[in-house]
Amino acid sequence: MMPRVDGGATPSRFPGRLDSSRASNSKIMVRQPVIGGSAGEPPKPPHTPAFTLGGGDNEQERLDEELRPQRLDDVVGQRAVVERLKIMLNAARKRKEPLGHLLLDGPPGLGKTTFATVLPRELGTECQITSGPVLSAPKDLLPYLTNASYGSILFIDEIHRLPHTVEEFIYPVMEDFRVDISLGEGLNARTINMRLKQFTVIGATTRSGMLTAPLRDRFVNREHLDFYTIEELADIVRRNARKLHTKISEEASVEIARRSRGTPRIANNLLRWTRDFVDSEAEGEITTALAQEALARREVDDLGLDRQDRRYLETLIRVFGGGPAGVQAIAHSMNLAADTLEDEVEPFLLRCGLLQRSPRGRIATAEAYQQLRLAVPDPDSVEKQKRLF
């Protein structure tokens, strides 16, 4: 589907005077790049500033407060992904061509947005950021396309939520760097083929299976982000503690990392909470004892289970005898929506081996009993009870 742009304009009631609403609309339609650079030029070497800083030391302090890495060498973890991205960057610099389209997929909080913002800094080019739900029609995408400079990057977060009309509209953009615009209507309608400057589309998604095959195949490069190890998360906690001007011991950083579910975003959230707790209830360095007390106040156990996760397992064990039980029955017992359990609670329990899904329903494993410090039922007695029914 091609967007239609009306050919005529409504004349102003006062000749020679620009209507204020039209003036304000024209200002709103202008998309300023989030990460600035030189327009109309090939990607520059990484030593070229990717955006203009203003404010001197105050601006540098603001950047220090940002927890996201600013360069690819600062990224912790995902070493295989980082190495492949470096190869892509070096090849693009040598050929003086834009980077190939890139799709990043993986669970939330693993660094997809971080990689998308680091790459334009490495190339010294501009970056525009938007998301799939915002682009409800092709006309919403046009300002980003027309403002894209040579070698710049357009980052589309949650790209799996693009409407079908926008998805079909972006096909020729990604392949041929052109867009077809329909002017007027009826017998006077005409189509303009607009050439675009070559740029890079970076898409991020948590549900790659929802992408259609034509859109997925148009991404030349695809990278999957996996969960982080405890050592990598502990390194992230220590680095971000320095950025937050907070002292933390090695053991305390490991304690926070163990409870972060392999996700840097959760590790940062727990670090902020621990810092707030120490600033409120104590003073000085974050020690292991203070970190344990702070996380206990937040009701996060040593495995990373929160109150909702433990309540789910307790309901499954105490009410349903460990299962099997249907998710609807568990949801009604907990007074929660079944979607909440399936999307927020069960994935981590399944990954930790505390829960099993079977055709008959959910079943608590022996590890779940041990985590809740409950007696593991005898398999023989359970089998005899099943034969009774």
Strand and helix map with partners:
Layout: E1 4-5, H1 20-29, H2 57-65, H3 79-95, E2 102-105, H4 112-123, E3 127-131, H5 138-146, E4 153-157, H6 164-176, E5 178-183, E6 190-195, E7 200-205, H7 213-217, E8 221-224, H8 230-243, H9 250-258, H10 264-281, H11 288-297, H12 307-319, H13 327-334, H14 338-351, E9 355-358, E10 361-364, H15 366-371, H16 379-388
Parallel strand pairs: 1-5, 2-7, 2-8, 3-4, 4-7
Antiparallel strand pairs: 5-6, 9-10
Helix pairs in contact: 8-9, 8-10, 9-11, 10-11
Distance between the termini: 59 Å
Strand content: 5-15%
Shape: globular
Strand order of the largest sheet: 3-4-7-2-8
Give the strand tally.
10
Architecture of the largest domain, according to CATH?
3-Layer(aba) Sandwich
Tally of discrete structural domains: 3
CATH fold naming of the largest domain: Rossmann fold
Rg (CA only): 26 Å
User: Which superfamily, in CATH terms, is the homologous superfamily of the largest domain?
Assistant: P-loop containing nucleotide triphosphate hydrolases
> Which H/E pattern describes the elements?
EHHHEHEHEHEEEHEHHHHHHHEEHH
Instruction: Extract low-pLDDT stretches.
Output: 4-57, 59-65
Q: How many helix segments?
A: 16
Task: Determine the structural class based on helices, strands and strand pairing.
Answer: alpha/beta
What is the helical fraction, as a range of percent? 40-55%
Written overview of the protein:
- This protein has 389 residues and is an alpha/beta fold.
- The chain folds into three domains: 221 residues, P-loop containing nucleotide triphosphate hydrolases (Rossmann fold); 68 residues, Orthogonal Bundle (Helicase, Ruva Protein, domain 3); 82 residues, Winged helix-like DNA-binding domain superfamily/Winged helix DNA-binding domain (Arc Repressor Mutant, subunit A, Orthogonal Bundle), CATH 1.10.10.10.
- A five-stranded parallel sheet has the order 3-4-7-2-8, covered by helices on one side. The chain has a three-stranded mixed sheet with strand order 1-5-6. It has a two-stranded antiparallel sheet with strand order 9-10.
- Helix 8 crosses helix 10.
- The protein is globular, with a radius of gyration of 26 Å.
